[in-house]
Amino acid sequence: MGEPTALDAFLEGARQALGTIDVLVNNVAGVGFADDDEAWQVACRVTLLSAVRGSTKVVPWMKAQGGGAIVHISSIAALEAGWPASYAATKAALISHAKSAAVALAVSGIR
């Protein structure tokens, strides 16, 4: 899911197979126990950006059909210390993204 073209192909395939995308559940994480540059890049690309990209991809489809639901699965790590920083920070960013998207998309019937 961390590769934009693979994610795009997956979502397009799901839409073709199902006809509509009523719900998108983002439940992916790229986590390691290191706190180096590579761990941060993986966490950002997989944990955060795959959810943002997936959501961005399905929003026009959901708007066209009158609504839908986008669910981000975060983690207690977003709120409590004790986890690898890269994982915790990207899960916290995911919560912030969900809140901002909820406000922006509510008018379109997207929860």
What does this structure look like?
The protein has one domain (4-105): 3-Layer(aba) Sandwich (Rossmann fold). The protein has a two-stranded parallel ribbon. It is 58% helix and 7% strand. Helix 1 (4-18) runs parallel beside helix 2 (37-64) and helix 2 (37-64) runs parallel beside helix 3. It has three helices and two strands, in the order H-E-H-E-H. The chain has helices at 4-18, 37-64, 85-105; strands at 23-26, 69-72.
Report mean pLDDT, rounded to a whole number. 93
CATH superfamily: NAD(P)-binding Rossmann-like Domain
- Which structural class best describes the helix and strand composition? mainly alpha
Number of domains: 1
CATH architecture: 3-Layer(aba) Sandwich
The largest sheet, given as strand count, sense and whether it forms a barrel, is:
2 strands, parallel
By CATH reckoning, the class would read Alpha Beta
Summarize the structure.
The protein is mainly alpha-helical and 111 residues long. The protein has three helices and two strands.
Walk me through the topology.
Blueprint: H1 4-18, E1 23-26, H2 37-64, E2 69-72, H3 85-105
Parallel strand pairs: 1-2
Helix pairs in contact: 1-2, 2-3
Considering the chains and any ligands shown, give keywords for the structure.
111 residues, mainly alpha, Rossmann fold, 2 strands, globular
